From TrEMBL:
Gene3D superfamilies: Alanine racemase, Lyase, Ornithine Decarboxylase, Chain A, domain 1. CDD domains: PLPDE_III_AR (cd00430). One of its GO terms (biological process) is peptidoglycan biosynthetic process. Pfam families: Ala_racemase_C, Ala_racemase_N. Keywords: Isomerase, Pyridoxal phosphate. GO terms for cellular component: cytosol. InterPro entries: Ala_racemase (IPR000821), Ala_racemase/Decarboxylase_C (IPR009006), Ala_racemase_C (IPR011079), Ala_racemase_N (IPR001608), Ala_racemase_pyridoxalP-BS (IPR020622), PLP-binding_barrel (IPR029066). The lineage of its organism: Bacteria, Bacillati, Actinomycetota, Actinomycetes, Pseudonocardiales. PROSITE patterns: ALANINE_RACEMASE (PS00395). Catalyzes the interconversion of L-alanine and D-alanine. May also act on other amino acids. The modification N6-(pyridoxal phosphate)lysine is found at K37. Residues 239-367 form the Alanine racemase C-terminal domain. This is Alanine racemase. It comes from Saccharothrix violaceirubra.
Length: 367
């Protein structure tokens, strides 16, 4: 790590390419849509998208239209789907850029039709059915009307029918089969209306556990980044690691306390190392006294409160020096903590850890 950097997120694009290839091999009949919303889950959307496409992904998925346009402007030419925007969004810019748009209601369909007239180009649309998540998507009782209108609208080309699973990370959950049945029904209605759309349903967990539901496209997100939402049985490689270095070392004496509020007091004389990363760099304050780092080949505890800019590591009687590398989390291969370990301690999921790592002060480098 360059000496002047306080904190560095490293993104291992080799690992990402490996994961894309592995996932594509697990869904051989389907195209891969690499989901790069939220700046590629904090890894860098454009870099991730380029690497994913190079490794065989033939679609990209984004949440908002502005995220999708960033990919297009970066020169990515594969189909890009976006699925969530306020109704005030300017769809015509997306249509002009050839972005695929998700539609969950008649009102949205009409907005897209109007935008297509402005853009003087047909809009590529994926009709979304709510099969039980009760979040985005068209309710089954409104579906026939939406499908009929979309089939008749000259301004739109219906590319796909799609939905999203609620409990795919619990393979035995009855919701998965129920959603699959409703999805089949929605597709049949689209066919009855004269459409011949593609179908897509699976996120990472669905891809890993339900080969019968892969259909034409799978939409992995978290698994691309090497984080396994279900089992641990596949060889996914974590893509992100988080690094800093020791800024100062000192001996403290038995009875001395460390950091704000004196929440930790040493029982013996010990060496502590100051590391210049804190909650402003993505180290959650909730990990105070509950995390370790890898320093000189060993896991060592962070003691006392996590501050805005710094943490303190207890190194006992070991020799540590200013400039020594500190790994906050990574793949776990060298014994360092993982994003999953942070998430488990905090009672959240690793998605939230990596996605939260985008900070102005943290340098991001790509390998
Ligand atoms: C985020 C998202 C995905 C990817 O989900 P993962 O659990 O990260 O694989 C797929 N589809 C939709 C609609 C999403 O919003």
């Amino acid at each position: 790590m360059a000496a002047h950097l306080h904190a560095e997120v490293r993104v291992d694009l080799d690992a990402l390419r490996h994961n894309v290839g592995l996932l594509a091999a697990l869904a051989p009949g389907a195209a891969t849509m690499a989901v790069v919303k939220a700046d590629g889950y904090g890894h860098g959307a454009v870099e991730v998208a380029r690497a994913a496409v190079a490794a065989g992904a033939s679609w990209l998925g984004a949440a908002s239209l502005s995220e999708a346009l960033v990919l297009r402007r970066a020169g990515l030419e594969v189909p890009v789907l976006c699925w969530l925007d306020p109704v005030s969004v300017d769809y015509s810019a997306g249509i002009s850029a050839g972005i695929d748009l998700s539609v969950s209601s008649v009102r949205r369909l009409e907005a897209v039709q109007a935008a297509a007239r402005v853009a003087k180009r047909r809009a590529r649309v994926h009709l979304k059915i709510d099969t039980g998540l009760s979040r985005n998507g068209c309710r089954p009782e409104d579906w026939a009307d939406l499908v009929r209108r979309a089939a008749k609208a000259p301004e739109v080309e219906v590319v796909a029918v799609w939905s999203h699973l609620a409990c795919a990370d619990e393979p035995g959950h009855p919701a998965n089969d129920l959603q699959a049945a409703r999805f089949a029904d929605a597709y049949a209605q689209a066919r009855d209306a004269g459409l011949e759309p593609l179908r897509h349903l699976c996120n990472s967990a669905g891809l890993l556990t339900r080969p019968d539901l892969h259909f034409d496209i799978v939409r992995p997100g978290i698994a691309l980044y090497g984080l396994d939402p279900v089992s641990g049985a596949v060889d996914l490689r974590p893509v992100m690691s988080f690094h800093s270095s020791v800024a100062l070392t000192k001996r403290v004496s038995a009875g001395d306390s460390v950091s704000y509020g004196f929440t930790w007091t040493t029982k013996t004389d010990t060496t502590v190392a100051l590391v210049p990363v804190g909650y402003a760099d993505g180290v959650p304050r909730g990990l105070s006294n509950r995390m370790h780092v890898l320093l000189r080949g060993r896991r060592r505890p962070v003691v006392g409160r996590v501050c805005m800019d710094q943490i303190v590591v207890d190194c006992g009687d070991d020799v540590v020096e200013e400039g020594d590398e500190v790994v906050l989390f990574g793949s776990g291969e060298r014994g360092e903590p993982t994003a999953r370990e942070w998430a488990d301690t905090l009672g959240t999921i690793d998605y939230e850890i990596v996605t939260g790592m985008y900070r102005a002060r943290v340098h991001r480098t790509f390998r």
